[in-house]
Structure formats: structure tokens, C-alpha cells
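During the reporting period the student researcher (J.K.) took over the structure-prediction task from the postdoctoral fellow and processed the backlog of single-chain submissions. One of the processed entries is reproduced below for the supervisory committee.
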Amino acid sequence: MEFSSGMEIIRRLKRGQFISSRPDPSDGRAKLVSLTQKGEALIMQLLPQMGQLGQLAIAPLSPKEQQQLHYLLQKLNVYHNPIFYQAHQDDMQAILAEKLGE
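J.K. obtained the following C-alpha cells:
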């Protein structure tokens, strides 16, 4: 199995015309990436299989364990979403200091 870097994956998706990128007007070092129509069509085509893979991933869990997993993932999402959006404005050291007291 090949392990690719995030940038290599982005290059491949661009070559396949599944995504496009443009400079971030607020940060000259960054690029904004978005799905093309071809990329959106592929996502829609793969959604049923992605759902099946999700069901396979949680298959060994009881219904109660599945509910607990969902609850914990939601809790993590609520915690991390603001940090993700803040990361576009602050550096990682400032976020760690604020969240972890480091």
C-alpha cells in the first residue's frame, strides 16, 4: 500500500479534474480548494458505497455501543469545529496555550 502526502493527493485530484484551487485572498501562502462538477458527481456516485463502509465499520458494535460512539463523535465535533475555524486565524501554539494551558 502506498502512503501519499496530503499535497500529493491534492495534485492527483487536480490532475483528475475532481478539484480546483485558487489563491486565498486573505493569506497569500494558502490556496482554497473546492470540488469541481466532476468531483461532485463522483462523490454522489460513491455515497451509497461510503454508507455501506460506515455500516461495516460499526457492525461489531451493539445498538447501544453505536449510540455511544455517535454521541462521543458528536461531542468531539462540537469541541473541534471552533478550533478548526480559529486555526485559520491563529497559530497552533496560541491554540494549544488557550485550550491546554501550554
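The committee noted the following: The chain has a mean pLDDT of 88.
J.K. will present the remaining backlog at the next meeting.
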